[in-house]
Amino acid sequence: MGLVIPTCTGSSIFHLEAGLVVPGPFTGVTCANTTGSIHPTHQVPFHCKLQITRGPAQIYGLAQCRSDVPNNDCTACIREAARIVRDPDHCPTQSGARIWYDFCFLRYNTNSFAGQLDTSGWILWNVNNVTDPSAFNENLGNLMRNISSEAVRPGRRGLGKGTRRLTPLSTLYGLVQCTRDLSGPACAQCLATAIFPDVCVNRQGCRVLFGSCYVRYELYPFFFPLESGGSSGRGPGGSVKVKKVN
Fold first, then answer.
1. Which domains, and CATH codes, for the chain?
2. Which part of the chain is the Gnk2-homologous domain (predicted)?
3. Contacts (Cβ under 8 Å, ≥6 apart) of 105
């Protein structure tokens, strides 16, 4: 599942012992929690919003996979995210947390965040530069416009993905994904903000992980269905730098 970036927020107000648990199979999601009453608001593949009542407190959660990820990988990713976010080294008692993986995203908070645009998060970029910035940036811009338009179309579940051939031996791969609680205009706004910060300019690869959307491009295949030689996580070449966005 690759990349793991947990972020804790708020004060230590409770122990999330039961956590947010999504049992498999993940097709036809059922959100469950062993210590509170729970009210699923969506019963669809790859996405689950929930509300848990614990005494006077309300806990709001969202679990979502990239819409291209197979069901088994999605289930495993959500389970692992729920486990890691409860780990003593991460966010076992905080009032809010977010965790990003290559395949999925999990978030909870004591304040309702459904439908609210959130462009805080993390940026990761390959330290290596491309060899022909002018041609590369033109192709990248065209690709991102196309897949962003695709993501906001009805029925796309916030997902857009595609490729651009750069040379006979080189292909650019791009993917965008909004959380499915966002409206089309809010999704478009999140993607417009995420594509692409200055630190990504001329880089061989970049990922922007916001609370409401995810944007990534690479010079190797990373989304499903994988091409021959592809990687579902981190690909070849170059170290990665990380920057937090508030």
1. 5-109 (3.30.430), 121-245 (3.30.430.20)
2. 1-113, 118-222
3. 62, 63, 64, 65, 81, 98, 99, 179, 209, 214
